[in-house]
Amino acid sequence: MELWKVSQKVSELSDLIPYYFFSLVSSCLSLSTVLVVFSLDTWGVIGIIVISFYVVIPYLLFAVPVQVLFNKHPKKFSVIYFCLYIFFFLPAVFIYSSVLNFDFSMDILTTKNYYAISLLAALSFWFWDSVFLQKKSAAS
Fold first, then answer.
1. Can you tell me the distance from the alpha carbon of 136 to that of 118, in angstroms, rounded to the nearest whole number?
2. Where does residue 86 rank: exposed (0-12), middle (13-18), buried (19+ CB within 10 A)?
3. What is the DSSP secondary-structure string of 31-95?
4. How would residue 139 be classed by pLDDT, with cut points 50, 70 and 90?
5. Is 11 helix (H, G, I), strand (E, B) or coil?
6. Are 122 and 85 in contact (CB under 8 A)?
7. What is the DSSP letter of 102?
8. 129 with 24: CB under 8 angstroms?
9. How many Cβ atoms sit within 10 Å of the Cβ of residue 129?
10. 3-class secondary-structure state, position 112
11. Are 103 and 59 in contact (CB under 8 A)?
12. pLDDT of residue 8
């Protein structure tokens, strides 16, 4: 590949980096807000901030690479993209909760919270991806 083509690709991607960041931050804050509200604890804003820092890692490792792939063919609020996000978040939530709890048993798969958190994580990321990036990519 010629150097100018690589430079052009990097330039196109760098224009979208702020939108990836906005999508990531919005997804983390949305998911952590829902988790704090439904946990009925008195964490409040501190809980939202703390949980957001925990949530950003699986989003960065599992969702952002898929998001970059999806943005090659932008589709705003695509149900197929949503289903694929769910597919990628099921193992992400399993791995992340196993690492945080130091419990690598399959017991987590029998809890409703596992599926609820996976679905909420996929929903929030899919929504903010469609709001920030799919529109931007389609306009480019």
1. 26
2. middle
3. HHHHHHHHHT-S-HHHHHHHHHHHHHHHIIIIIHHHHHHHTTS--TT-HHHHHHHHHHHHHHHHH
4. very low
5. helix
6. yes
7. T
8. no
9. 30
10. helix
11. no
12. 66
Q: Which two tokens stand for residue 126?
A: 């899919």
Dmax (CA) of the chain: 57
How many Cα atoms occupy the beta-carbon half-sphere of 45 within 13 Å? 0
What residue has token string 């196109």?
A: 12
Residue 68 contacts by C-beta under 8 Å, 6 or more apart in sequence?
Answer: 20
For 8-67, the pLDDT digits (tens) are: 666 666 777 888 888 899 999 999 998 888 877 677 888 888 888 888 988 888 888 888
Tokens of 7: 């430079």
With left for phi above 0 and alpha for psi between -120 and 50, is residue 102 left, alpha or beta?
Answer: left
